[in-house]
Amino acid sequence: MALTYAIPDLHGRLDLLEGALDLITRHSSGQKFKIVTLGDYVDRGPESRQVIERLMGLKSSTLDLLCLKGNHEAMMWTTSRNLAELSWWLENGGDKTLASYGAVDDLKVIPSAHLNWIADLPLMYVDHQRVFVHAAVDPRIPLSKQNEQTLLWRRYPRGFAGGHGRRHVVHGHHADQKAPLVTQGKTNLDGMAWITGRLVIGVFVDDQSGGAVEFLEVFGPPAALAKSD
């Protein structure tokens, strides 16, 4: 039974990422598995640089890792390439990211390898049963025609319960402390882990349709008590 584990918005919480990797490894009982991280590795929390470095360096004979792009990585990259005002990013948590690199407003401290990694992150992962994405997909148009604004920024309207055709959609981005929020067509995993200290991981059976068969939880200190630089 092949499993895929989905990890939502980490926002600089290296402690929760490490806890998730440990818990998933134990849960998989030595079998091969896939992890899909749903984006938003940076901003708000204290260890954005460290989260990126951990994901970039993660190698395992049993683990297949796929990291998706979130809107916060898009903001970081766009600002670092001088395509947006620095204040826009800083006001949305980028100040914490720069602090993790040891700077206040100097974008030159961000290694080009990190920016290249962000640039290459895919926007979506699709298997036979599900669509994994940071924010949302438009159910009215083919997956191949989805635009970046939707995939990175859109929030589903209140009460919308659908997926995309026969596929279940797994996403983060729409922060809600009540996560996981599950409907027939989609699952929102973003429980505001960076501030609550509670990270929800969805466990999906690759050849079984629908939502998660199980949810795992990792706990760390809430934001006021979390480790800071």
From TrEMBL:
InterPro entries: Ap4A_hydrolase (IPR050126), Calcineurin-like_PHP (IPR004843), Metallo-depent_PP-like (IPR029052). Gene3D superfamilies: 3.60.21.10. It comes from the Bacteria. Keywords: Hydrolase. SUPFAM superfamilies: Metallo-dependent phosphatases. It holds the Pfam family Metallophos. This is Serine/threonine protein phosphatase 1.
